[in-house]
Amino acid sequence: MGISRDTLIRALKNTYGKNGMNDKDIDDLCDFILAFFGYDDYVLDNVLSPPERDVFYNLEEYGIVSTVREEVNIVKGKTWRINQWYLNKQKIMKLAEDKSETDKESNIYDSFFKNM
């Protein structure tokens, strides 16, 4: 099961949008993410440039992606490390449906002050 663009945009709006990112930048970030993942669930870390990797680390802070490290022993006894980034589909779905706690709090306080 893949993540649709609309779902990813809703998740980004509920995270980055609430921290001040505008809709155009959210659309660009969504396209950036989908350009790497396409129809796959993972991306190899070694295809990322340092600035792109920084974006992925930031996405990881929100739980949108996660990283997995795998070590494989090769013929000459050396260890080959494979780092991969995975889309956290369950978290993205949750973020897309999330009704922010701050929205609930602001409504509580708004109604509180209206009743005074």
Describe this entry's structure for a reader.
This protein has 116 residues and is an alpha+beta fold. The protein has a single domain, classed as Arc Repressor Mutant, subunit A, CATH 1.10.10. Helices cover 53% and strands 18% of the residues. A three-stranded antiparallel sheet has the order 1-3-2, with helices on one face.
In short, what is this structure?
This protein has 116 residues and is α+β, with helices and mostly antiparallel strands. It has helices spanning 5-15, 23-37, 50-61, 89-97, 101-114; strands at residues 42-44, 65-73, 79-87.
Q: Which range best describes the helical content: under 10%, 10-25%, 25-40%, 40-55%, 55-70% or over 70%? A: 40-55%
Gyration radius (Cα, Å) is: 19 Å
Assembly status: single chain
| SS-based class | alpha+beta
Point out poorly predicted stretches: 101-106
Number of E-state strands: 3
Might you state the CATH topology name?
Answer: Arc Repressor Mutant, subunit A
Number of helices in the DSSP assignment: 5
Order of helices and strands: HHEHEEHH
Number of domains: 1
| CATH class category name | Mainly Alpha
Beginning-to-end CA distance, first to last residue: 50 Å
Choose one word for the global shape: elongated
CATH architecture: Orthogonal Bundle
**What is the strand arrangement across the widest sheet?**
1-3-2
